[in-house]
Design a protein that fits this description.
The protein is α/β, with parallel strands linked by helices. It has helices at residues 17-26, 43-54, 67-74, 97-107, 133-148, 162-165, 197-207, 229-240, 251-259, 263-277, 293-296, 305-309, and strands spanning 7-10, 31-36, 58-62, 79-82, 86-87, 91-92, 112-114, 154-157, 160-161, 181-185, 191-195, 216-219, 226-228, 245-249, 290-292. The strands form five sheets. A five-stranded parallel beta sheet has the order 3-2-1-4-7, sandwiched between helices. Helix 3 crosses helix 4. The longest helix has 16 residues, at 133-148. The chain is globular and about 55 Å long. It binds NADPH dihydro-nicotinamide-adenine-dinucleotide phosphate. NADPH dihydro-nicotinamide-adenine-dinucleotide phosphate binds at residues 11-17, 34, 36, 39, 45, 64, 83-87, 90-91, 93, 96, 116-119, 158, 160-161, 164. NADPH dihydro-nicotinamide-adenine-dinucleotide phosphate binds next to strand 2, strand 5 and strand 9. Belongs to the NmrA-type oxidoreductase family. Isoflavone reductase subfamily.
Length: 313
């Protein structure tokens, strides 16, 4: 059997990053996690890193302000996965990855790089609205740098993180489902795709040694999880045994409210707009030069929307 690649996770203490570390270890990869000097005495992060070490990961010190430190850690591995922040209401550092790309280029040994994507495919969002398009534009800047440097890559388009979208019944600003009411975005009938974050990590790690995903985009579309907001609400109603009071927010109202919010909120709302009013995640067929994760890896028993939502009962 071929040797499993050694993996470096950058951004390993993050919301998705910690799941990537777990999945990499679970799939038997020798796993390295970047310990950024700058986290200093952030006790939560340090404790998390130590727990990774206890689980068998290697911690490697480096800094985005020290190119040679990045080159040195990249040289230890075959695959680099970056899960650096890219949500404006939390933190958005997507362009910092250009420094990582420089380090990977200089190191010259990396067989696969997965940049911090894990959402809507930015290549499909050239007409996205301001200000939220910044997320897609920045991710495309990183893609161009990767491709110009000739670094082998896989781009993971993970669609909606379940925690954000299912938790809030697809309503921006909510991450826990109400047992009383819900506001539908428009008619609530646009399909989107919801993926348990642990499954995103599992599928992502599956791709790294797979020749079928080399230099391709991999969409994660678990077939049972392609649902409209109304269908998500119905699943929740079935679980709680009660119908919610429903109202609706029109496209015009949504956009008007968006304009009154601060910049970071507007970025997030733009993304909800494209997903929930335009159906940008599910309104296209996966074409040549791309793959779909649940087809590539049918052995992964993904979490269905209903299973995911039982945690809120
Ligand atoms: P987090 O906000 O949890 O941050 C991830 C990590 O980024 C941090 O733990 C930290 O890692 C690193 N980081 C943060 N600031 C800096 C900095 N200044 N310098 C260097 N590193 C920094 O990220 P998420 O998990 O929320 O996002 C990861 C990816 O997932 C992004 O691309 C994002 O766009 C995408 N996403 C997609 C969603 C969807 O619904 N499809 C939803 C949410 C995110 P450390 O300290 O360990 O180095």
């Amino acid at each position: 059997m071929a040797m499993k690649s050694k993996v470096l996770i950058v951004g390993g203490t993050g919301y998705l990053g910690k799941r990537l570390v777990k999945a990499s270890l679970a799939q038997g990869h020798e796993t390295y996690v970047l310990h950024r000097e700058e986290i200093g005495v952030d006790i939560e992060k340090v404790q998390m890193l130590l727990s990774f070490k206890q689980q068998g990961a290697h911690l490697v010190i480096g800094s985005f302000n020290d190119h040679q430190s990045l080159v040195k850690v990249v040289k230890l591995v075959d695959v680099v996965i970056c899960a650096i922040s890219g949500v404006h209401i939390r933190s958005h550092q997507i362009l910092l990855q250009l420094k990582l790309v420089d380090a990977i280029k200089e190191a010259g040994n990396v067989k696969r790089f997965l940049p911090s994507e894990f959402g809507t495919d930015p290549a499909r969002m050239e007409n996205a609205m301001e200000p939220g398009r910044v997320t897609f534009d920045d991710k495309m800047v990183v893609r161009r740098a990767i491709e110009e440097a000739g670094i082998p890559f896989t781009y993971i388009s993970a669609n909606c993180f379940a925690g954000y979208f299912l938790g809030g019944l697809c309503q921006p600003g909510f991450i826990l489902p109400s047992r009383e009411q819900v506001r539908l975005l428009g008619d609530g009938n646009q399909k989107a795709i919801y993926v348990d974050e642990d499954d995103i990590a599992t599928y992502s790690i599956k791709t790294i040694d797979d020749p079928r995903t080399l230099n391709k985009t991999v969409y994660i579309r678990p077939p049972q999880n392609i649902l409209s907001q109304r269908e998500v609400v119905q699943i929740w109603e079935k679980l709680i045994g009660k119908e919610l009071l429903k109202s609706s927010i029109s496209e015009q109202e949504f956009l008007a409210i968006m304009k009154e919010q601060d910049y970071a909120e507007q970025v997030g709302l733009t993304h909800y707009y494209h997903v929930c009013y335009e159906g940008c995640l599910a309104n296209f067929e996966i074409g040549d030069g791309a793959e779909e994760a649940s087809k590539l890896y049918p052995e992964v028993k993904y979490t269905t929307v209903e299973e995911y939502m039982t945690r809120y009962l």
